[in-house]
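Page 42, continued from yesterday. The earlier attempt failed because a stray header line got pasted into the input along with the sequence. Redoing it now with the clean sequence only.
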Amino acid sequence: MLNWHFAIYNKLGSNKPMNTDLRNADSRALHEPFSQYLHESGPRVALAWLVSVLGSQSPALRSSNSHLVAYTGCPEAIDWLEVNVASPVTTNWGEGAALLGTPWSRIKAWLASGGPKQMMALDTLIAYRAPAPNMAPLAQIASPVLPEAPELSEYQASLRAVVAEADTPRIRKTVESALAYASEILSRKNRAVAVADLPMLFLQPEQFANASEILSQHNAVISGVRKSIQDMLAQLPSRS
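This time it went through. C-alpha cells are written below.
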C-alpha cells in the first residue's frame, strides 16, 4: 500500500510544484516536475507525488499518463496500476506493468478477472514482445521480459479463454497479437534495464546500451512528422 509514501511526500515534498497546477498535464508537462522529485527526493517520494497528481486528473488523462509510475522503479507501483486501472484502458497501463516486471502469475489473474484489468493484462503481454520502432523509446531501451513465463500451451489456453468469454473487437485483436508474438514474449530471458534502474533511465536515458540509436531514430521520426505537418500547413490557402 502507498499510504506511508503519502506521509513521506507530505513531509518532504511541500516545496515542490502543487498538484493543482497539473490536473490537465500530459506526460510531457509532467516530465520536469517528476524528474525533479526523482532526482531530489528519490523514487518512493516521487511515486507518492505522482499518484496524487494522477488521482486529480480526468480518467482519460490519468490513463495516458499511467505508465509514468513505472519509472519510479518501485514494485508497489504495480499495486497502484492494479487498483486504479479503469476505462478508458489505453496501452499505457500495460506498458507500465511490463516495465515493472509484472510476472505471469499476476497477469494470469488479471486475465481471469475480466474488465479493465483483463485489458491491461493483454496489453502487458504485448509490451513484453521484442523492442520495435513503434514502441516508446524508453520502453525499447528497457526491453522488459516476462518473469515466470509459462509453457506455450498454458499461455495459449489462457488467451483463448479470454476470447471465449469476452469477444469484443479490441480484445479479439489484442489476443491475436499476443498469440502471434508468443515466441518473443515467452522466450526472451534478459531485460536490458533492471526495474531498480528505471528512475535513471527516465533521468539519463543516454547512459544505457543502444539508447543513442533508439533515441536518434525516435527524434528523426518526430522531426519527419513535424515537417510533414508544416508542409501541409504551408499548402493551405492563406486567409485574405
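Notes: The two ends are 61 Å apart (CA to CA).
Reminder to self: strip header lines before submitting.
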